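Protein modeling request. Please complete all fields; requests missing the sequence field cannot be processed.
Requester role: graduate student
Desired output: 3D structure, token encoding
Chains: 1
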Amino acid sequence: MSFRSYLVAQALGAFNDNAFKTFVALLAVATMAMDQSGQLIAIAGALFIIPFLLFSTFAGAVADRWNKKKLIVIFKAIEIVLMILSGIALYFNSIPFLMTLLFLMGVHSAFFGPVKYAILPELLPDSELSNGNGLVQMTTFLGVILGTVAAGLLLQYFKDRPYMSALLFTAAAAGGFIASLFIQDTPPLGKAEPINLNFPVQIGRNIKELHVHYSVYLATIGAAYFWFVGAIFQMNLLVYSKSLMGLSESAATNLQIIIAVGIGAGSYLAGKMSRQQVELGLVPMGALGLVFFAFDLAFSFRSASRTSVDLFLL
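Delivered output (314 residues):
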């Protein structure tokens, strides 16, 4: 019950992150000139990512220092407030307000991420960690898929009243909050060390410390590359599909769904193929796939079917 509630809470968070972010991007593409919408999408992506650079080390210290279940409940309550504010921003069609909310959603996700992963060893035995990670990735990208689909449908039905979409965002946040209440209580495991609020200095120290643990350093670089590729495709695919492929907003949304379905399927398979252990042999396989299918995309934009296959396998 506890792990299932955790999966629901984190999946609904992924749903809201992507539904809101994609909805703002689709709204920009539908109502602005292509060069303006492209610039706005780039700014929106940067505003959502910058908090991860600034606050992730601080968020990791917070995750170790305090009760993780209580932190998840607090973050889920904050998400409800942010989604209510999104309705106000959309009602007044305020671009600065929407950009501010995207930044705050990034801050929220930057703090939620370390807690989301750090609590796993406390909810699952060691033998189930790989499979549990696979389920987390699968449900995360199920949230991504549904959020992306929802954004396209919401724009279709509420293009003249975009603020109505906030009702779904708020309902999802409320559902995540309720699910978080059923996660089992977990005691804080970290040391009560002072938290360094000088973020740039702390980031530098952490990177130096990573070099000492070289295998962790390599894993960090690999994870960073994965999310780097993912961010590029998620934020640029809408403009790419419209300007180069000539697709409609709904067809462009379908390409994002294809990426998310592929990641969800790969995450599930990776969990199964790990056979109750951390199977590092899957990492170079996945890395080669990212390189090969990303390269093929350079030549596939004239064919929607080839692009779809590349994105799924990517």
